[in-house]
Amino acid sequence: LLDAVIGLAPNLFYGTGIPACVLVLRAKGSKPAGREGKVLFINADAELRAGRAQNYLDPEHIEKIVNAYERYTDIPGFAAVVSHADLKGNDYNLNIRRYADNAPPPEPHDVRAHLLGGVPKAEVAARADLFAAHGFDPAHLLVERDARYFDFRPELNSNGDLKARVEGDAGVQGKEKALTDAFDAWWNAQQSRIEALPETKALMALRAELLASFGNALVPVGLLDRFQVAGAVATWWGEVVFDLKALMAGGFEGVVEGWVTTILTALEDGGAKGTPLDHKLVKRLLPEYLGEIGGAEGKVVELDGILKAATASGDDDEDAEGGDGDDDEALSEAEVKALKKELSAAKSKLKTLHKGFSDRLEAAQAEVDAEQAETLVLDILKADLRRELDRRVVAHRQAVVAAVEGWWSKYRVTLRAIESERDAAKDRLDGFLKELGYVG
């Protein structure tokens, strides 16, 4: 009867702070071939987005859980297929961590390296898969000391040098470019499916095809695993699904019209989160206008700062008792008055620009024809997906940086060096005390 046991993160459901568990049951004899006599355990208690009062399952977390269930196979640290015989041997204990433990391994510490320095080769070998995935060769940071240890290259002087060396590494940049090229090729191949959505109306079929083909195109690059790749496209789909529904119903021009309506509605709602000027459509339709807004805002900030500084300087001069002030730097009353007038004009200009936003946006929309609308929407959809992919690439690169920075923090300064610094500080202190006559 029992098909799967899925452990979820704590505080996902309202009023329930404890972790949750999903039991997947099937009618007797209805298990698919290959699943008879087995139970799948999925440990998804780390799959969450933390909120202030509650945690959340995002589309990428759901996709990872569903993908693991559909594959019904062992995934280290996440899923395990357990036979009924093993369950019976454990007295039918369904504790998920017993079978799929996702606890991270303890941080290794080499006592000899702490004492004498050096990076243990065993720790470098343990990170080989992480480095290879991102195209990074640790030999660009390390040189061999002996059969068991590496040293950091002598030109590396601080922890900060490590990040710059990793990010500038040719292998790292080449791997990231390979992923970008694979993404561009995938988009060019799949774009026609999105273009055909107003005719096909096959929204869910499109989702399935994009998920499958995205993984097939990007996973072979080797930088991101299949869960990270699927998470990128699943998160993107969750963000743009309503835009795709609008595309299915009203075509590309309907999507643009919907975005404009959303922006204008947010503009009327003063309590709306964020600013309509940050919308992805505005940045593409009104780049010159945004430049004018930025220039006007900068002018207001500049004049306001000068005026506040002049006012503060004047107050200080009045409070000062005696002494010669620097009259050359102080603004005269006429100059302050002129500055206030200029600031008022700058604020008025900025206000006028903001008031004209709706008219300029609608005018820009009116100039967009069907072909331009298609190009605009597809470019925005592609940029959104690229952003999700880049976010995961950056996280993976940061994991590489964190690994080498961890070795620097642990082993770069040896115990002997710390003791030497301590002894030198003690000698300096003894010398000061002798000079002051406190000790003989």
Please give a handful of descriptors for the protein shown:
alpha+beta; 4-stranded mixed sheet; 3-stranded antiparallel sheet; 440 residues; 17 helices
Question: What is the structure about, briefly put?
Answer:
This protein is an alpha+beta fold. It contains 17 helices and seven strands.
Kindly name the structural category: alpha+beta
Main beta-sheet annotation: 4 strands, mixed
Beta strand count = 7
Radius of gyration: 31 Å
Helix % is 55-70%
How far is it from the N-terminal to the C-terminal residue, by CA?
86 Å
Instruction: List the uncertain runs.
Output: none
**Count of DSSP H/I helices:** 17
Q: In percent, how much strand structure appears in the residues? A: 5-15%
Please provide the ordered H/E string of secondary-structure elements: EEEHEHHHEHHEEHHHHHHHHHHH
**Average of per-residue pLDDT values:** 90
Overall morphology: flat
Please give the order of strands in the largest beta sheet: 2-1-3-4
How does this structure look, described?
The chain is of the alpha+beta class and 440 residues long. It has helices at residues 59-71, 84-89, 96-99, 111-116, 121-126, 128-133, 159-167, 170-195, 197-200, 203-218, 226-268, 280-285, 287-319, 333-355, 357-366, 370-411, 415-435; strands spanning 2-10, 19-25, 38-44, 79-83, 119-120, 142-144, 149-152. A 4-stranded mixed β-sheet has the order 2-1-3-4. It has a 3-stranded antiparallel β-sheet with strand order 5-7-6. A hairpin with an 8-residue loop joins strand 1 (2-10) and strand 2 (19-25). The relative contact order is 0.09.
